[in-house]
Every structure is written in C-alpha cells, then in structure tokens.
C-alpha cells in the first residue's frame, strides 16, 4: 500500500508541474496588443524600375521589372507618347487577398510607335519612378 501512495503522490506532483507550466506559458487575451487600423502600414515597395528599350522599325518595345510586396500583386503596363516623351504607366494596385508577404520581382512588356531617341519616363501608380537600364 505504501508503494502505491508514493507513486500516486509523485504522479500528482508531476501532473501539477505540467499543468502549471502550461497555464503560465499559454498566451492570454490581455497580453495581445491590438493595432489600430490607422497605424497599420501598407506594404508597397517603391524602388527603381529596371527597363530595356529595343527600337525596331519605328516601334519601341520596353520590357522591365520592378519589385512588389508579394507574388499576388497584379501589374499592368501601358505606354503613351506625351509631349515628345514616352510615358510608361505601371499600375500596381494594393493586394487585398491573403498572400505571403515576400518581396518579388514582377516583369512587364509594352510597346509604342515613336522616333528613335525619344526619352522614356516611368510612372508607378502615378508617381515618377527612378529607372535603371537592363
């Protein structure tokens, strides 16, 4: 009888230690800090746009890439001729779905008919971007 009493006491003490460590290590709702929606920053990556211009038979084919917050981000590129300058408009709307936030390179391609040495301006979401050559 004495053997079982010690065994039960030891099992009870071990169970209490495990239960106490679980209770103390589990997060409590009072420990969770809620961020106000106004303080949450949107993830937009504003970096330079790498472009390459190939001129052939009066047409500029402009290809390039730029970094985006994730692979779920959609990208649309259009080109127009404005005041004797080629204007590449890249639209990258903010992603509203659930996606892994890992910076990714997105590629685009567009073309326009213009003279041979026409300067190129690149706008991302309406903001002038810095460009680098590929």
- The quaternary organization reads as single chain
- How far is it from the N-terminal to the C-terminal residue, by CA? 85 Å
Largest sheet: spatial strand order:
5-2-1-8
Instruction: Determine the strand fraction and express it as a percent band.
Output: 35-45%
What structural class do helix, strand and pairing data support?
Answer: alpha/beta
| Backbone shape | rod-shaped
Q: Calculate the mean pLDDT score and round it.
A: 83
> SSE order in H/E notation?
HEEEEEEEE
Count of folded domains: 2
Largest sheet: 4 strands, mixed
Q: Helix content range of the residues, please?
A: 10-25%
Q: Are there runs of 5+ residues with pLDDT below 50, and where?
A: 36-45
Q: How many strand segments?
A: 8
């Amino acid at each position: 009888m004495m053997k079982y009493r010690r065994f039960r006491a030891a099992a009870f003490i071990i169970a209490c230690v495990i239960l106490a460590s679980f209770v103390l290590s589990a997060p409590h709702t009072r420990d969770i800090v809620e961020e106000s929606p106004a303080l949450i920053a949107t993830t937009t990556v504003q970096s330079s746009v790498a472009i390459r211009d190939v001129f052939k038979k009066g047409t500029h084919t402009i290809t390039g890439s730029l970094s985006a917050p994730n692979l779920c981000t959609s990208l649309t590129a259009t080109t127009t001729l404005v005041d004797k300058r080629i204007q590449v408009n890249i639209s990258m709307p903010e992603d509203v779905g659930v996606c892994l936030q890992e910076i990714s390179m997105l590629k685009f391609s567009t073309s326009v008919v213009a003279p041979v040495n026409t300067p190129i301006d690149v706008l991302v979401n309406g903001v002038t971007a810095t460009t680098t050559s590929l």
